[in-house]
Write a structure and sequence with these properties.
Blueprint lengths: L9 E6 L5 E10 L5 E5 L2 E6 L8 H8 L11 H17 L7 H4 L20 H14 L6 E2 L1 H6 L3 E2 L6 E14 L5 E16 L3 E2 L22 H8 L5 E3 L4 E3 L4 E4 L8 H15 L18 H21 L9 H14 L3 H17 L14
Parallel strand pairs: 10-12
Antiparallel strand pairs: 1-2, 2-3, 3-4, 5-8, 6-9, 7-8, 11-12
């Protein structure tokens, strides 16, 4: 039966930032086995196989969406372009998008991961984009949610407020015929965009969403932090005292100047977090390789960006800020070159950095509560 003659089980709608529904030209059709196929134009995708039946429209949408607003996009490159262009624009102004919270006087000293309505942290590229938006707009609450999630809690988005788009990565199944004419199922990765609002933009939520998190107790800036020391110690990374901060993949060791050489404790631990992220690239760990051959080449720039993001993510989770770069301008130029050549790489770098943080967290004897979800 053709797609045109087959009556859809139900249509897929999107909701804009004001909660208005709009048909996105997609529909779910039942197949002969009572499974659900997603049909967009002339393309048919196996969204939910028969074993998930009985399937209702509510069930399907809850599985297919992250809850709330989504438009789906037919051009994934639009997502990559929009977010990467924003970061490129910041870099060209000498700003590091992912460091904006630490440079904002309202957020400095109180940086943490952005949180969903249910206290689950955002991760990867979403962390970067929500940090940047919070710093630019002056949002103090760490909580973000969709229009529908706010409505479910009997709250509402303030009139005139604009949402922030984040992404969700997953795979769907596509039915194809192989060279022998047999049906086969392919897992196809996809990115989906949906819109969230900061709690500051919403009225009617419980007081817990508006409460500003207390900054961590002021620590002696010239004294080592036992909790942070223990975290790095439990990774079992070999760290020795030297004259520079560096990780050698050949010897698989981290060299660090003595603690007393740093201006404050935060600078020491931020630098160590950066080198520890490099340490995860070893083939016995995450085996991260960007075809790096020499200092300063494209592979070097890519690995440095991963380490920069990893240190920021880990610092936000443990309670210290990022390190200062002595060669900041040189790094920015190298990252600009990479991002202009590959609009997808900032997504990949954020994902690699997230995996690095999850890896070192997983080495703790008593698991430190760190984000473990993909974007």
């Amino acid at each position: 039966m053709s797609n045109e003659k087959q009556k859809p089980a139900f249509y897929l709608f999107m909701k804009d930032e004001h909660g208005n529904s709009k048909n996105v030209g997609a529909a779910f059709h039942r197949d002969k086995g009572n499974g659900l196929n997603l049909v967009i134009g002339n393309s048919r995708y196996m969204a939910f196989p028969p074993r998930l039946q009985p399937m209702t429209s509510t069930h399907a949408i809850s599985l297919f969406s992250t809850g709330g607003t989504y438009p789906m996009t037919n051009n994934v490159n639009d997502i990559y372009d929009r977010i990467t262009n924003k970061i490129i624009a910041d870099l060209e102004q000498g700003e590091l998008t992912w460091r904006k919270p630490w440079n904002d006087e309202n957020l400095a000293g109180n940086v943490m991961r952005p949180l969903r309505w249910n206290d689950i942290p955002y991760t990867g590229i979403n962390t970067i984009m929500l940090w940047a938006t919070a710093a630019e707009k002056g949002y103090l609450s760490p909580y973000w949610m969709t229009f529908q999630q706010a409505t479910t809690m009997k709250a509402h988005v303030k009139k005139g407020e604009k949402g922030t788009q984040v992404v969700y990565a997953d795979t769907f199944q596509k039915q194809e015929k192989d060279a022998d004419g047999k049906d086969s199922i392919q897992n196809i990765p996809f990115l989906k965009v949906y819109t969230v609002f900061n709690a500051t933009q919403i009225e009617g939520l419980s007081e817990a969403f508006y409460k500003i998190p207390e900054p961590p107790p002021a620590d002696n800036q010239e004294r080592r932090n036992e909790q942070w020391d223990d975290f790095f110690k439990q990774t079992k990374a070999e760290i020795f005292s030297g004259t520079k901060a560096a990780y050698s993949i050949t010897t698989d060791r981290i060299e660090m100047p003595p603690f007393e050489c740093f201006t404050d404790a935060g600078s020491y631990y931020a630098t160590l977090a950066h080198e520890l992220t490099h340490w995860t690239r070893h083939q016995s760990r995450l085996n991260r390789d960007f075809n790096r051959h020499k200092w300063g080449d494209e592979g070097y720039a890519k690995e440095e960006l991963v380490a920069e993001l990893g240190a920021c993510f880990l610092g936000a989770d443990l309670g210290f800020g990022p390190k200062e770069y002595e060669q900041n301008a040189a790094y920015i130029q190298s990252w600009l070159s990479v991002l202009k050549n590959d609009k997808k790489f900032i997504f990949q770098a954020a994902s690699f950095a997230q995996r690095a943080v999850e890896y070192v967290s997983g080495l703790q004897a008593e698991k430190t509560v760190l984000p473990t979800l993909s974007v």
